Amino acid sequence: MQRNALDLNAGGSKLAAPFPPIVVNRPARRPGSRLRVVLLNAAGGKRFPEIVACLKRPPLQGADVILLCEVNAKGTTPSARRDVAVEMASMLEMSCAYVREFGVINESGEIRGYLGNAILSAVPFDDVVAVAMPNPRTPRMLRRNPNWSRVGTPTGIVTRMNFGGRELTVGLAHLHSRTVPAERARQLATYLESFPATGRAVFGGDLNTTTTQLSSWSDLRATAREMIVNPRRFRAPQAYEPLFEHLQAHRLEIDGVNVANRPTFTFSGLIPRSMRPKLDWLAVRDLHPIAGTAAVITPRSPRLMRRISDHDFVTVDLEL
């Protein structure tokens, strides 16, 4: 869920990332003949040891690139005041590129933690760029925590790395969950201005393709009615979200790397699967998915089998 935030780029100035990326490189793992990509919105990362346990067992075991949305750092309560992305990378013996989008500030105006996104890699990063995106103006959110606010702007990641002599661009973005589809498309178009237009590439993220605006109770009621009348639009949102046109223009293909019509978000177990939305997406260019490897996997604790995120893992193996 997104909250209102002070946008550091307000006032018409050129968009600039509010915080520099944090990069921790480790020695490369020996490359194989395929590239396993995994995407997850980690819901802050409060249960990140359990997320790591999922990543250490089949079918996610041995992932070469892990894209993580909503990973918190230093002081934010959902992450138990830990640097989630950096610690996950250490546990998996992978390199880490972490980009902070927002700083969480207390009543004294001090930053006490960060919200951001991360890419983990089996090889070191050659380059990491933080890419600021527009922060859509929406009506007051449904809920607001009076004890904290945040400063920053939505920020994606563009990285370069080398797998066995093959250069690869990998990117990640987390788009706004409450605004209209046209504003999500504007966010992605801005992001793609910094994403190379040619060459092997993997892009992914929580694109929040809800097909609707969700900034008021009336919006939520209208969406609930639409879920009953036309549930398929939420599992196949391409016709309702113009952001997919920007992916296509950049030759980033979604076919074959995503499970068609399979939802990836569960806000309540009481909602039938047929009515749940597909929010999380992978896209590739000049890379071929291996047939039968695209999957949506429920993130569950190895012990209690409870959900550890409201989003599912999205994964695929690619030919290198």
Tell me the strand percentage band.
Answer: 25-35%
Overall geometry: globular
User: Any idea how many domains?
Assistant: 1
Biggest β-sheet: count, sense, barrel? Answer: 10 strands, mixed
CATH homologous superfamily?
A: Endonuclease/exonuclease/phosphatase
Distance between the termini: 35 Å
Radius of gyration: 18 Å
Mean pLDDT: 89
Give the total of beta strands.
15
The residue ranges in which pLDDT falls below 50 over 5 or more consecutive positions are 1-8, 76-80
Helix content: 10-25%
Verbal overview:
Helix 1 packs parallel to helix 2 (84-92) and helix 3 packs parallel to helix 6. The strands form two sheets. Strands 1, 2, 3, 4, 5, 6, 8, 13, 14 and 15 form a ten-stranded mixed beta sheet that branches. A five-stranded mixed beta sheet has the order 7-9-10-11-12. Residues 1-8 and 76-80 have low confidence and may be disordered. Helices cover 17% and strands 32% of the residues. The chain has 320 residues and is of the alpha+beta class. It has a single domain (6-319), classed as Deoxyribonuclease I, Chain A (4-Layer Sandwich), CATH 3.60.10.10. A hairpin with a 2-residue loop joins strand 9 and strand 10 (166-174). It has helices spanning 48-55, 84-92, 181-192, 217-229, 232-235, 243-249; strands at residues 6-7, 22-24, 34-44, 65-73, 95-105, 111-121, 125-132, 149-152, 155-163, 166-174, 201-206, 280-285, 288-289, 295-297, 313-319.
